[in-house]
DNA sequence: CTGTTAGCGCCTTCAA
DNA sequence: TTGAAGGCGCTAACAG
């Protein structure tokens, strides 16, 4: 049997197809009585809208895109993205929108994909993640006229509306915890220097620990590519310095674990000799010994909010930024007072 | 400026829109000369097909779906899925297809989503992962008449075509390695009993190590939910038994890491007292001490093949199963001869 | 308040 | 080989 169409419903209910369309979309133009009759007919036939037809007519794909330019390896090892996606989907599903997800090589490929998606009208807009310094994406999206929301920070270019977590205050919270314990020399093993959130964290650490002001010495930031290998290398160089830090803050969990191994190999105990903090709570942080003190963000809610902002934008609402509360610091076993 | 349409190209090239359609789709009906002229015009205008219009007309969405019923937490911690997706996308992109990705609560929700996707004609078919015992999905998909490929095993119901890796022979390979080292008592910390690939592994281990036949004693399999917590619990119970195993095979990396911690806490050295093998190579397996001996699969190629089979199915090719080669065993530091 | 009508952009018959 | 015409299923203008 053929899939029922609006024309079928119209025939069954004895009205025009336009009336059916109105009734189905809950808009004025039909009396309550006929609306009920139409809905009953649609229900009896098991009608479902054909997205292609709706998209063609309404000039709206009913889908949004998410392209991610990170190596699959890095992505898979972090729970952040999956939870982000989970949150995005919860929000999208509620409004009958689908998510097109795509892994890309780099930002250029990402822009190329946006161009393609937009030209084909595959999506109505996109969620942009991992904002960078000198990020070409906002300008490219504006040039395309493609609706977008930046998830992960305010747009420095002021083009795209953003949704973000306050990294600066999160870092301040970590520093406060370490200072309470008595730490003076705090180091930071960060992600690539091109990523905005990483830059913000470094800047915040430098601000919070500037010499004199707070009783801590100026910190050292070592940048990495987020991998365990570079996390280990960075830790090795930090710990072998003359004035080695008594606490190290890592920009993700994998590097924190790798760093902890390096410390142990170097004959240092965690947290007795060196304290460790990971930025991102995950299973990984709880299976290690000692368990890791981490910063915990609600990635799911973050994703839902970003998706919600994008849908609002598509509905014609004015662009607006949303800043989240400062994430929680989960204190576990990897932080303790520094050695005397 | 308006997005160019076929009518625009036709006007520019001075031909009919039908001629343009023929030229663009590389089918007979236009002379080579006009075809070139048309292609040049399309190029000059930067024309791209509108997917909604094409989908409506061709009755084909140009998209396939992937719904995953695993907790986000479990997903995110394993690199397998991201690489799988990466492979799927590479194959789909090549043929101008998009991927709709969706996380669902359970198999029932998954079937509900298939029903919805199919009713809306959102996708042309789906990739089904994590086949289970008494899996309701193949029958549900057949009832819907929805094209699908099962990624992760042959369909026991014989309904869906499948793409899979030979778990039985992979397990045999692990057992061979352990036997060479001299292990006699091998235990298995598996995933949930409902998952087919987990069942296959357990069965293979039991087969390979049945008493007498191979010089090993009958193995013990403990099922878990894949989490680190249950992996730890299972390890604790295995190691505290009177006849404790000298080697343990884990169904993923997280549990192997958790198990290693438990062994250490129990005063056992890895691999001196107990050897450990993880099923899945990931960063996690290389940052631990000792590094983990793992089974390595090519998830990306696996995904690409599955996607390729689905597209072939959509093109009307007959369903066909594809079995992969046995995955490689990467021997690292966590396996050694058992204690004397 | 209702129903008719004409597209949305593409593909594909049919005649010419 | 080409052009005209119609339909895919839905929505949004119109008139009635």
What characteristics describe this protein?
homodimer; six-stranded parallel β-sheet; alpha/beta; Rossmann fold; DNA-binding; 3 domains; 12 strands; 434 Repressor (Amino-terminal Domain); six-stranded mixed β-sheet; 340 residues
- Whole-number tally of structural domains of chain A: 3
- The percentage of residues in β strands of chain A lies in 15-25%
Averaged pLDDT of chain A? 89
Q: According to CATH, what is the class of the largest domain in chain A? A: Alpha Beta
The end-to-end span of chain A amounts to 81 Å
The strand count of chain A comes to 12
Under CATH, the homologous superfamily of the largest domain in chain A reads Response regulator
> At CATH's second level, what is the architecture of the largest domain in chain A?
3-Layer(aba) Sandwich
Uncertain segments of chain A: none
State Rg of chain A: 25 Å
Percent range for helical residues of chain A?
Answer: 40-55%
CATH-assigned fold name of the largest domain in chain A: Rossmann fold
Structural class of chain A: alpha/beta
What characterizes the major β-sheet of chain A? 6 strands, parallel
Oligomer: homodimer
H and E order of chain A? HHHHEHHEHEHEEHEHEHEHEHEHEE
How many distinct helices of chain A?
14
Query: Which protein chains are joined by the largest interface, and how many residues does each one contribute?
Result: A-B, 54 and 54 residues
Instruction: Tell me, briefly, the overall form of chain A.
Output: elongated
């Amino acid at each position: 049997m053929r899939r029922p169409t609006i024309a079928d419903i119209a025939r069954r209910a004895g009205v025009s197809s336009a009336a059916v369309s109105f009734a189905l979309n809950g808009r004025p133009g039909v009396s309550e009585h006929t609306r009920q009759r139409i809905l009953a007919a649609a229900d009896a036939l098991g009608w479902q809208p054909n997205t292609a037809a709706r998209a063609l007519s309404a000039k709206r794909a009913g889908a949004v895109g998410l392209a991610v330019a990170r190596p699959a390896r890095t992505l898979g090892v972090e729970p952040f993205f999956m939870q982000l996606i989970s949150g995005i989907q919860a929000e999208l599903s509620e409004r009958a929108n689908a998510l097109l997800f795509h892994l890309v090589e780099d930002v250029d490929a990402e822009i190329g994909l946006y161009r393609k998606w937009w030209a084909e009208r595959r999506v109505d807009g996109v969620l942009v993640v991992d904002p960078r310094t000198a990020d070409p994406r906002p300008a490219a999206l504006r040039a395309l006229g493609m609706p977008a929301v930046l998830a992960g920070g305010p747009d420095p270019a002021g083009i795209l509306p953003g949704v973000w977590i306050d990294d600066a205050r999160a870092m301040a919270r970590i520093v406060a915890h370490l200072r309470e314990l008595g730490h003076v020399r705090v180091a930071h093993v960060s992600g690539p220097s091109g990523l905005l959130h990483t830059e913000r964290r470094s800047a915040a650490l430098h601000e919070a620990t500037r010499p004199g002001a707070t009783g801590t010495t100026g910190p050292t930031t070592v940048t990495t590519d987020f991998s365990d290998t570079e996390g280990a290398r960075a830790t090795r160089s930090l710990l072998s310095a003359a004035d080695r830090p008594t606490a190290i803050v890592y920009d993700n969990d994998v590097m924190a674990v790798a760093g902890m191994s390096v410390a142990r190999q170097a004959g240092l105990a965690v947290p007795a000799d060196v304290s460790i903090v990971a930025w991102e709570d995950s299973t990984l942080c709880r299976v290690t010994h000692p368990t890791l003190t981490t910063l915990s963000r609600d990635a799911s809610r973050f994703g839902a909010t970003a998706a919600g902002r994008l849908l609002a934008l598509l509905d014609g609402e004015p662009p607006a930024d949303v800043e989240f509360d400062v994430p929680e610091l989960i204190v576990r076993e990897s932080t303790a007072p520094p050695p005397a």
